[in-house]
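We store chain and fold; thus.
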Amino acid sequence: MRSLRIRLLLFFIVLGLLSAVASGGIQVYRFYTYLFQTIESDLNRTVTNVADLLDHEAMIQSTDPKFANEPWFIQITKIMRAVKRSMNLTYFYALVPDDQGNFVFGIDANDTFEWDGDKNNTAEPNVQGTIYEEMPTKALEAWETGELRFQDEFYTDQWGTYLSSFFPVKNEAGEKLYLIGADFNVSSVFARLSEALTSFVVAMTGALAISVLFAWLISRSLTRPIVSLTQVAERLARKDFDVEIRLPRVRDEIYRLAEAYRTMASEIENYTAHLEDMVAQRTQELREANAQLKRRQEEMERDLRLARRIQQNILPSEKTYPQREEMEFGSVYESMVEVGGDFFDIVRCGRNQYGILIADVSGHGVPAALVTTMAKVSFNS
């Protein structure tokens, strides 16, 4: 019975664990999907909307560092930096194609500083006028198609791991002028996701602990009456009828089972107490029945012997056969049972004429013998 309790306990624990994992996994997935979709929506909206605020001719010239102190350059830089900070972007920049097919950084919304070329330097460099050596696939695709493209796969460089959007800016004639790019460092997303996972683990641990507690209480409440009934059955098997069977408070299946045990225990006790008397009574009844059957059998045998003698006297014998010097009559008759339905006789029909009569009644036993006797009487008459 302990194994039953353990199985129930393990069942509820596994059920609670699976429920917690499924619920937590769904919540984490929803959270991750929401963040991903939110980042995509914000990046796409940013690169498309900011294009309406920029001077396209000035943006094309922004790749030349000599314009860095021009009022229009400073004004556009302020606009892009304001957008970058409001949208919490990591990088926000313009890419202008040159005559050799390369893309050169124009206005960069990052703060200006002197980069010493050290790749371990994590500060944000100002890349104005430099060529974008490894253009992202989606950036090239946006330029070739002339449509907005979102880098939906994480890519990593020396500065971090990012998601990006690229939007090709066109003039009124539909000619492509430059690309607006926005990068979002997903490290913060991973941090939030890690926090969510940590919260999930804590919640799952708490749920598991609660599941274990409830599983123990439920398994105990379910198995306790069954354990009690098992002990009752073991004591009844040892013919210990002093056991007390307590009925549960709730009138459920276990209550009905306990009630049936109580009734069964009473019947077994009563049956066991009177078993010897019942056996003696049945034995005496059998003896009386056997004696009565024996008496009836003896009476039947006596009646059959009497009927056989009567039938033998009806049949002809050597004493009743006609006597002739030139011939003799004889017979042998053996019935299958005590009496039978066979009959024969020798009848004198004239001075030198005799008839032999043979009769066979269907069946055997007393009914056939009675019919034979009637035939004998009728023939003689």
About this structure: The two ends are 92 Å apart (CA to CA). Residues 113-123 have pLDDT under 50 and may be disordered. Strands lie at 91-97, 103-108, 149-157, 160-170, 176-185, 342-348, 354-360. The helical segments are 2-50, 56-61, 71-86, 137-145, 187-237, 253-273, 275-314, 366-380.
